[in-house]
Amino acid sequence: MRLENKIAVVTGGSRGIGQAVSELFAKEGATVIIVDLLPQGQDVADGINSSGGKAEFHSVSVTDKSAIENLFAEINEKHGKLDILINNAGITRDRTLEKMSEDEWDAVIDVNLKGVFLCTQAAAPYMKANKYGRIVSAASNVGLRGNFGQTNYAATKAGVIAMSKTWTMELGKHGITANAIAPGFTMTDMVDKIPKEHFAAIEASIPLRTVAQPIDIAYGYLYLASDEARFVSGICLTIDGGTSR
After folding, report:
1. What is the pLDDT of residues 134-173, one digit of tens each?
2. What residues does the Ketoreductase domain cover (predicted)?
């Protein structure tokens, strides 16, 4: 198993890509700590445990600095280490530039950018102490090319890529890698909001002529979290069917 005996935190692990990551990591031998405000995170953890894996669920907001710090201290005390951090939690509040409210801007920045910062800041000391760490954060191909109506979302995802490159330089000497993943259209709740009449056009715009399934993205996380990627750091792995070619 590729993650045997690893302790992996997955934020936003209750559904979509995060759920796929949580379940895949558990199958690969990791103890998965799901961090999410959605109560179905407990169902995901229960499903993993009933299938012979190991998982915990903690209802904590990634935007709550003290709660995140306390949780990571608890994880380290209980398990003796924190090997992998998957910064997956994210939200959208789409609106064109002139119509976007300050609240919509702030909400997305708070979760998608500040939340990634707070979780990584809290995890880094434990990884440094163990001289080992894998940090993989959710960017998006929107962070590479922009997208109509997503000023806030695109800004956060571009920021995640830049932060990952910075952490590569700051944490590399401690045996810690930092990477980002840029998914394209993936069958999650976010994509479900797209009107059906536009969906065919979206699929036609993708060279592979289909949108991704969450497991397609989860396999990218698995690679970057595994020891197979021990010499891979500071990259943004794009998984979008060739859209960002």
Report:
1. 999 999 999 999 999 999 999 999 999 999 999 999 999 9
2. 6-190
The top-level CATH class assigned to 7-238 is alpha beta
Report which residue type is found at 125: P
Q: Which residues contact 173 (CB under 8 A, 6 or more apart)?
A: none
Active-site positions?
Answer: 153
Question: CB of 83 within 8 A of CB of 132?
Answer: yes
| Cα dihedral: 112, 2, 77, 119 (round 10) | -10
Instruction: Tell me if the pTM is above 0.90.
Output: yes
